[in-house]
Specification:
GO terms for molecular function: adenylate cyclase activity; ATP binding; DNA binding. By secondary structure, the protein is mainly alpha-helical. About 65% of the residues lie in helices and about 5% in strands. The chain contains 49 helices and 7 strands.
Length: about 950
């Protein structure tokens, strides 16, 4: 049994959040028998990763030795060596020569005077011999944390042994602090030179915002606003220890910071980062306080704020490591964001207000001046509130809605109760800015706070709308809001239009009823037109147009034109639920890919300019979809990954992002990752009660299964899509383009009759709507059906026609799939020898598309053909004639003696698909086992 240590046993690899790459690299190195040196700044998570790895690899080691040094004990010689070898001294001493044993016992027990100078060689050899003696019984794992505090004597002895272990099964797992300074880098190099020659250095860097959020949730600090998590990430610099301490301080604080106020910095972190402040003069500290209060402090700004000796004082601070040079210009940059936050939190409130007062006149930017004026002012002040509202409007125009929301809340705080506009009206404007910025949780909380006291119908309905908008795809969770919103709206057409527009979304998302959603949207558009509310009318018309497009309604183009008529609201025009988005969807479904790309690219550029976070997430996904249809799989993969990253960061549209990323991975990335993402998309859609995206997610899952070679699983997922879309009234086959995948999967599972039914129903709708690319894809699927029936000539004609039409429409990946199917058809033609060269055109097209999973399928098919499947026995010329192509391939490989797993690998399908195919073969041939197939190959009648 390995010696383990109790505290390591409590660590699991799933706790190492955000360290998958580093953890994987270290794990791979240890698995190969190598050593690992983890390094990074204080608090970055080295000890957590080290203990987690140690707990995992202790199970395979015979002996685990551990030491963890501290700064206060680093002056004690041989202390780390005693930690490592003290408990095993009795076991190894008998294997040591007398001189080595005496020197080691003296060093570890202190019963005799031993020093490196006097017993240097004996001690060095003793440590090496001790490790070899332990390794003779089984693998040894040496775990050493905080190498920078190792006493010099122990460090020298351990390094001597490590460099000479050779093939001895001793692995070192160590961690050392590195801050990135020149002195620190030199120290790190020294530790690396003292490690075994095969040591892999793994640096741990800062966490992303999403990883910090997951870390905080995992430790119980959940429910924080995304804006707060953003502030924690920025202040901590992605350092997990700092982030957790800031999260703890927030949890213990009686009240959350108000807009513009800094995060509470606990005393523990202040002491950690501000110890060097004691070496600064009082004037220099005040200069740094002004710098910490400013957004982008420069020496010129500090002088304008009254700090006359700013240059000299900042040079002094830089020499102490408090400031770092900024390569991008004159802006002063703190060595770590936490230094700025701790310095600001440490200052008394009057000094902070004085710093903001000085900056309110010194700053050149009107937004900054207004913010500083607010933070320098206590109580309500109509003039300050008005300046803040103007600054919020300016931030909004600049495309900084998050800043606008923060300024709007500051304005509300300084607005008198009887002011015009009132404080709650300004809060609601801030909530709407927060939604634009992707900070739905902040918007929801602000709106619900307003609802606790608002009595005016306009304010109440506006607040209800913010609550509904903040729910996103989980609109079903706020179902109880709608009756209250309708009651507050009364008979006011302006307010009723807002409520019915959201009711349209409820009908679509919660109930999956496109017809009802269309009716609600049309009603909302009429109410808004009567009230003269053009923005609401445009949104309602855009919704109506999109519903009609998906339903295959003949009025869709006319509704789109109505939604595009002037006058337009610029913010609605570029919104992801606006007319531009509806027109994009119609263009894609109408096979006008070039126009669709131009449209969505312009929309993406505009929403980025305006800082519309949620719309940016959606438009990146739309652009990825367009590139995927065009056969630009690499570009689609990049865009879908970017969209999903933004969605996860903002917590919006994650299900839709995972769905599109799954399709992109299946086309140009990793099929296993595609399955993982598609399952996530299904799980999120089901969890949100989102009927709209559930069918899209299932279509992505079915496609991923098909690409991975599991036709049976693809059929299960895609049959659900068929049922859901039929129930929702979706008739346009260009919406998800899953019908061809379902038909192909059905052919592969031996159900050509159902496949033909799917094709005929979809073709009728595609002909009615003029969906040429869908018709071509259906032709490809029908060719597979005809080939399964033995109608080779008709199948070739269908595929040839499909290939030509898809090439003309610019659907590159679908064209390549048609060519691949044609190559397989030629190769499988009865009575003809396989022709691997016929796959060259398919490989060329997939390579042009960067469709790597499909390219691997071509290579697998070529390999199967090159191996030459066993011929059908002459005695049984018709024995396999009634089988489908996949069934014949599987049967032929069984005749060769291949196992199910080998067949799956050669045909690029799953083992389950092979098993299901064999079951059909047995049924069709009237046999019961693989042995009977082999008997057929030998020309004997099965028993």
């Amino acid at each position: 049994m390995p010696r383990d240590f109790a505290e390591a046993a409590g660590y699991r690899s799933d706790l190492v959040i955000g360290r998958e790459g580093s953890f994987g690299a270290a794990r791979e190195q240890l698995a190969r028998g190598g050593s690992v040196l983890l390094h990074g700044p204080a608090g970055i998570g080295k000890s957590t990763v080290l203990r987690t790895l140690a707990a995992e690899y202790a199970r395979t080691a015979h002996t685990v030795l551990r030491c963890s040094a501290t700064e206060s004990e680093s002056h004690l010689p041989f202390l780390a060596l005693a930690d490592l070898l003290g408990q095993v001294l009795d076991e190894v001493s008998g294997a040591l020569p007398a001189a080595q044993r005496t020197a080691l016992e003296s060093a570890l027990t202190g019963r005799g005077e031993s020093t490196l100078r006097r017993d240097g060689l004996a001690l060095r050899l003793a440590v090496l011999s001790a490790l070899r003696a332990l390794a003779a019984e089984g693998p040894v794992l040496v775990v050493a944390d905080d190498l920078q505090w190792l006493d010099p004597a122990s460090a020298e002895l351990l390094g001597f042994a490590a460099r000479r272990l050779g093939e001895t099964p001793v692995r070192l797992l160590c961690a050392v602090r590195t801050e990135g300074t020149e002195t620190d880098d030199a120290e790190y190099d020294r530790h690396l030179r003292a490690s075994p020659p095969d040591t892999r250095a793994v640096r741990l860097g800062p966490l992303t915002r999403a990883q910090v959020s997951a870390l905080l949730d995992g430790r119980g600090y959940s429910g924080l606003h995304r804006s707060t998590v953003r502030d924690i990430h920025r202040t901590s610099g992605g350092n997990p220890l700092f982030a957790l301490e800031l999260g703890r301080a927030l949890a213990e604080s009686p009240a959350a910071p108000r807009p513009g106020e800094p995060l509470p910095v606990p005393t523990s972190l202040r002491a950690l980062v501000l110890s060097r402040l004691e070496m600064l003069s009082g004037e220099a500290r005040r200069t740094l306080l002004v710098a910490s209060a400013g957004a982008r402090p420069t020496p010129a700004l500090l002088r304008a704020a009254g700090r006359e000796n700013a240059e000299a004082e900042t040079v002094q601070a830089a020499a102490l490591g408090l400031l770092a040079p900024d390569p991008e210009g004159p802006t002063l940059r703190f060595a770590h964001p936490l230094i700025s936050a701790a310095l600001y939190a440490e200052a008394p409130a009057p000094e902070r207000r004085a710093a903001h007062a000085a900056l309110s006149t010194a700053a050149s930017d009107p937004i900054e001046r207004a913010r500083h004026l607010a933070l320098a002012t206590t109580g309500t002040d109509p003039e300050v509130a008005a300046r803040l509202a103007e600054a919020a409007a300016l931030a909004r125009d600049r495309g900084a809605p998050s800043v606008a929301a923060s300024l709007g809340l500051l304005a509300a705080r300084h607005t008198p109760a009887d002011g015009t506009p009132g404080p709650d009206e300004r809060r609601l404007t801030a909530a709407e800015d927060a939604i634009t910025a992707g900070e739905q949780d902040l918007a929801r909380d602000v709106a619900r706070e307003v609802l606790t006291r608002a009595t005016a119908p306009g304010e109440r309905v506006r607040a209800w709308m913010a609550v509904i908008e903040a729910a996103g795809q989980a609109i079903g969770e706020v179902d109880a809001v709608f009756p209250q919103a309708l009651a507050d709206a009364g008979d006011d057409p302006r307010l009723l239009a807002l409520v019915h527009y959201q009711l349209a979304w409820r009908s679509l998302v919660v109930q999956g009823d496109f017809a009802q959603g269309r009716e609600e949207a049309a009603h909302a558009a009429r109410l808004a037109a009567r009230a003269g509310e053009r923005s609401t009318e445009l949104l309602a018309l855009a919704f109506q147009a999109q519903a009609e497009t998906l339903m295959g309604h003949p009025g869709a183009p006319a509704t789109i034109q109505r939604a595009l008529q002037e006058p337009q609201d610029p913010r609605v025009a570029c919104h992801h639920n606006g007319a531009g988005s509806s027109r994009f969807r119609w263009l894609v479904m109408s096979d006008r890919l070039a126009e669709a790309r131009t449209t969505v690219t312009a929309l993406l550029r505009e929403v980025r300019r305006r800082g519309m976070a949620e719309s940016e997430v959606h438009y990146l996904r739309f652009l990825a979809e367009t590139e995927l249809h065009s056969g630009h799989c690499g570009r689609a993969l990049e865009l879908s990954r970017e969209s999903l990253t933004l969605a996860r960061d903002a917590g919006i549209g994650e299900g839709a992002g995972a769905m599109q990323a799954a399709l992109a991975e299946a086309a140009g990335g990793d099929p296993d990752r595609a399955l993982e993402l598609a399952r996530e998309a299904v799980r999120r859609s089901e969890g949100d009660g989102d009927a709209v995206y559930l069918s899209r997610a299932l279509a992505a899952l079915g496609h991923a299964h098909l690409v991975a070679g599991d036709a049976a699983a693809a059929v299960r997922a895609l049959r659900r899509v068929r049922e859901l879309e039929a129930g929702a009234g979706i008739t346009d086959p260009a919406r998800g383009r899953w019908q061809g995948d379902l038909a192909e999967a059905l052919v592969r599972t031996g159900e050509p009759a159902e496949a033909m039914d799917v094709i005929e129903v979809a073709r009728a709708h595609a002909l009615r709507l003029g969906r040429q690319s869908v018709l071509a894809a259906l032709d490809r699927s029908e060719a597979l059906v005809r080939a399964a029936r033995g109608e080779h000539r008709a199948a070739v004609a269908r595929l040839t026609s499909a290939r030509e039409r898809l090439a003309g429409l610019g659907f590159g990946l679908e064209e390549a799939r048609a060519v691949f199917a044609l190559a397989e058809l030629h190769a499988e033609r009865p009575g003809r020898a396989p022709e691997p060269a016929s796959y060259d055109e398919a490989a060329r097209l997939f390579r042009r598309c960067r469709a790597l999973p499909w390219l691997r399928r071509v290579e697998a098919a070529v390999a199967v053909r090159a191996s030459g499947p066993a011929p059908v026995p002459a005695a049984e010329p018709d024995g396999l004639a009634g089988l489908a192509s996949m069934e014949r391939q599987v049967a032929a490989l069984v005749m060769e003696g291949a196992t199910n797993r080998e067949i799956a690998a050669r045909l690029f399908v799953s083992v389950k698909t092979v098993e299901a195919t064999l079951t059909r073969v047995y049924r069709k041939l009237g046999i019961r086992s693989r042995v009977d197939i082999v008997r057929l190959a030998a020309g004997r009648r099965p028993d």
